Amino acid sequence: MPAYNEEEGIYNTVKDFLNQEVVDEVIVVDNNSKDNTAKEAKSAGAIVYFEPKQGYGYAVQKAFRMALTRKADIIVNTESDSTFLGRDVYKLLPYLEDVDMVCGSRTHKVLVDKNAKMGPFLWWGNFALAKLLQFLYGSCQFTDIQCSLRAIRRNELKKIMPYLNEGGSTFLTQMTILAINKRLDIIEVPINYSERVGQSKITSTTFKSLIVGFKIIASLFKHKIMRGQ
Q1: Separation between Cα atoms, residue 57 and residue 172, nearest integer Å
Q2: In what order do the strands lie in the sheet with 101-105?
Q3: CA–CA distance from 157 to each of 94, 154, 200, 211, 219 (Å)?
């Protein structure tokens, strides 16, 4: 769990995931929070690390590096704002018997809370970006390129870890592209998406969402060009 100023929701989020029988540990990476994020995470039972380089991607990279120093065979990335449910881990795990990485999809409206930040603009934007990735890379079917709830096998994470270097909001896109390039088998599964606790840092306004969208498009083409060299 990367975390930046998430004191409002992180305690319950950590508890929710730790309450799942299959979850051994929760790692939280505090990314320069100015509130009590780290304290709340520790009190809920998380193992807390600090990442000084500001950015979502840098925080997740730190979490992955720390996870690889421990014994877990499967690493799950999620958020610290209560948007994802701990019980949805059970939706991801069965597919890892046949594939290397399982990504959640927030495009099934019956599973999206009415107050969740997934209105028509973001829904169609995510879907369009996912289809662009699918077209450019000839990968499996994608519907949600930016869903951060995903599970990956330890050995497969080690294959892409040396190449993960994007520190901002395009990190998940890069992770998916690297997994495709390394010929990992990937699948999407529908997951629940709830109203976040606290304020969004990346898509709090339509303008910010547009900026993120353009950055993702640029990242998709950049990696495509690099792949062809």
Answers
A1: 8
A2: 74-77, 150-153, 101-105, 186-190
A3: 18, 5, 27, 28, 20
Answer whether 92's CB lies under 8 Å from 104's CB: yes
Radius of gyration of the chain (CA): 16
- DSSP one-letter code for 132: H
Which stretch of DSSP H or E encloses residue 153? strand 150-153
DSSP annotation of 187: E
Distance CA(71)–CA(78), nearest Å, equals: 19
Q: What is the DSSP string of 64-94?
A: HHHHHTS--SEEEE--SSS-S-GGGHHHHGG
- CA distances (Å), origin 107, targets 47, 59, 169, 191: 31, 26, 19, 9
Q: What is the pLDDT of residue 229?
A: 41
- So what's the pLDDT on residue 202? 63
Which residues, other chains included, contact 103 with Cβ-Cβ below 8 Å and sequence gap of 6+?
Answer: 142, 144, 147, 149, 150, 176, 186, 187, 188, 189
Distance, CA of 172 to CA of 150 (rounded, Å): 10
Question: Within the chain, which residues score under 70 in pLDDT?
Answer: 200-205, 227-229
Which homologous superfamily is 2-228 in?
A: Spore Coat Polysaccharide Biosynthesis Protein SpsA; Chain A (3.90.550.10)
CA 87 to chain centre: 16
